[in-house]
Design brief:
This protein is α+β, with helices and mostly antiparallel strands and 368 residues long. The chain has twelve helices and nine strands. A hairpin with a 2-residue loop joins β6 and β7 (276-285).
Length: 368
Amino acid sequence: MMNDEIPNLDSFDEASLDAAFAALEAQARAAAAALDGEAAVEAFRLHWLGRKQGRLNEVSSRWLKSAPAEAKKLLGMRFNALKAAVEGLLEAAAGSGPSDAALAAEAIDITLPGTQRLTGAEHPITRTMNEIVSVFAALGYSVGVGPEVETDFYNFECMNFPPGHPARDTQDTLVVANQERRPQRDRLLLRTHTSPVQMRTMESHPPPVRIVIPGKVHRNEADDATHSSMFHQVEGLCVDTNITFSDLKGTLDHAMKALFGSSVKTRFFPSFFPFTEPSADVQISCIFCGGKGCRKCKNSGWIELLGCGMVDPAVFAFAAEKQSGYDPKKISGFAFGMGVERIAMMKYGVGDIGQFFGGDMRFLSQFA
Ligand code: FA5
């Protein structure tokens, strides 16, 4: 960018002025043609148009000031023309973007394979839980949720497990530490089942109620192939006038057929839960051998899948403290609760419950 110093002018006739200005414009054009990058364009601007040390400023002070009065007009016109030419060059250089060489250096090879992003997929437990919920949603059930950290009252007492009742031992419980000073019913624990949400629903909604409640539960149990200390359940509750055990059987038989195929049979075995009376365990015909007997069903032809029963009047009595409509003389209902992992293991032929939670992508990607 270094050009010669601006020479002094000896003669100010038209031809000399033309030659002097043409020489300067040629210098500017040559410099502008070689510009590469923003920094070079800025240097060009300063070199030619800079207020104090720019070449045009120097032309002005050297030539205009020493020019005789009659030449000033001619010189001024040429000066303005040169300035306009330099500004034009600058504008073209600034707007023309990076040079071919700069573009070539930055070029990318669009024929190279791209980076593959993994798309997410529903976890098999989430998928199974959603599938169960949608079977009941199609029957007109709404969906509810409740807290995972629950009080002793909701998890046990109002579900008819009084303090010290031996049925509490069937659900070995993880409790929150240092709550000895609280009344027992207010002490916090990790809910051992989704059944407390039955009561939370009834307390906030008068009958009729039809609701399914998916969620996570915790028990202080040693992990093995079919047990986990954290697992998921889907609870169901239906309360209305004239709800009978036949309604319960018909509903669950339909749900099992929807989940496992229309050839599946169900049978109901007497069982015990403090919050239902009568209570039953539901078994389905073995989906692996069609009921003939195999290793999976321990040669019985049946697999136990969930618990259920008619809502115990003692549970309605707790609900009626907040919602008078739950008068067991006027209404009745059924409830059920199923383990999501057990159902997912059956549906997908998974032999070890721990695989759902191990985070092994080789296992999980099979469900993507
Ligand atoms: C209950 O939890 C009752 N609340 C179910 C119920 C609801 C009965 C409403 C009547 C009316 P149970 O403890 O059997 O019941 O557990 C229900 C299901 O959870 C079991 O059938 C099983 O599939 C699953 N389950 C229980 N413990 C575990 C565990 N440690 N790991 C994985 N799944 C489990």
